[in-house]
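G., the chain you wanted modeled:
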Amino acid sequence: MGHREDLLEGAKRCLLAKGFARTTARDIVKESGTNLASIGYHYGSKDALLARAYVALVEEAGDTFGGAEPEGEPGSPERFHWVWSNIISAMREPGSVFRLSMEVMTIELPEVRAYLGREQREGGRGLVALLMGVPEDEVTDETADTLGNFYLTLMTGLIAQWTFDPETAPDADALTAGLRQVVEGVRKG
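Predicted structure as tokens:
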């Protein structure tokens, strides 16, 4: 690996161990075996590097269970349950990228917020692909901006609930039961 990749890998490890605010450029350099100047050369700033590392961690988290054969038919309540069960399972792990998400949501750095804002559509696209059983490149921008944003909103709320009080946060069974109630309500209306 070159310095660029080493920095990204070191930044990912630092984020999981220390979080965004407590990770310093020196931490990243120590973890990656590179030098301070290489952060600016390859990423522009420590914060830009950390933002990219965070997005890479989120993508890897999706790949963790995305490689397994999903349960249930695409778009079914069983698939919905399977996806959210895997996300919740990942949230329970120490150093969870999903718990890190709560910190990242509160960051007031314009460069970081702008970059992460641009990545929202791709996050939604990935969730739609997983839940609906289609390749990501077949998910249209319109679907990513509607259904994808719906799933991202659900995920953000779920992460917040699990961060604040894991004892009372919903599990996949409760989320799936809620989905069924919404669908029944729509059918009656």
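The chain is about 75% helix and 0% strand.

Shout if anything looks off.
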